[in-house]
Design goal:
Length: 148
Amino acid sequence: MRTAGGSEELLKRIGGAIAAARKRAGLTQSVVANAVGVEIQTISRLETGTISPTVHRLSQFAELFDCPIGSLFGEHRAAAGEDARSLSLLIADLPREDRRVILRIVSDAASLARAKDERQYREAAIERRELLEATGGDKGKKRRAKRL
């Protein structure tokens, strides 16, 4: 099933998500084709966005790849548990020391992300306070503070 216009971008995103999910599941196009009863070329065309998958086919892929069907639309935000499971699968076959190094890297990256969020929150609070001061919106607070 071919589409025109802006649908091409959507099909490429869906196809890319299907390919990524297949690879995360450790499956080849051939294995997937056999599992869902289609030619390997069909899997290739689905993954490149040349043809559009049916809802039934997406459901088959989600079950086969053990992922939420929504993730096959290319913009899925997995729950933390799903993310942890994905990370676990990615590093499961690595030596213990390598897994520990990767976990330290992930921990450091998470700390940096939290610090960035906190910094952005503080900057926004400062901007709000400065705006209030500039517009005179906090005069009552200053008077109350002086009385205390």
